[in-house]
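I am writing to request your help with a piece of structural work I have in hand. The matter concerns a single protein, recorded as an amino acid sequence and a row of C-alpha cells. Could you please explain, in whatever detail you think fit, how the C-alpha cells follow from the sequence? Thank you for your consideration; the sequence and its C-alpha cells are set out here:
>
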Amino acid sequence: MRIQLSRFVESDLEIIADFIAQDNPRRAVTFIRDLRDRFREIGRGPLHYQLRPEIGESARVAVFGHYVVLFRIVDQVVRIERVVYGGRNLPGLFQ
C-alpha cells in the first residue's frame, strides 16, 4: 500500500534524531533511516499489526525499539500519524 505521513511525522523524526544525536550523531542518522525503512515494511503488510481501539479509531501500532509508529489504514493508504516514545500517553496523541 501507499504510505502517507501526517503533518506531525517529520517533526517527530526531528525530535527523535536530535535526542539520539546528543550521544551519537551517526546513530541518529542511521536510526531515522531504519525507521523510514520500517514505514515501508508497514506499508507492505499493515494488516499484520493489531488494531488498538483504546488508542484511537482504527489505530494500529508498530514497535521500533523504544518508539512506536502509530498508523491507520484509510482506503488503500497507510497513514502514519505519529512516531513517538512508547512510554508516552498514546491515546492523547492519535488524532
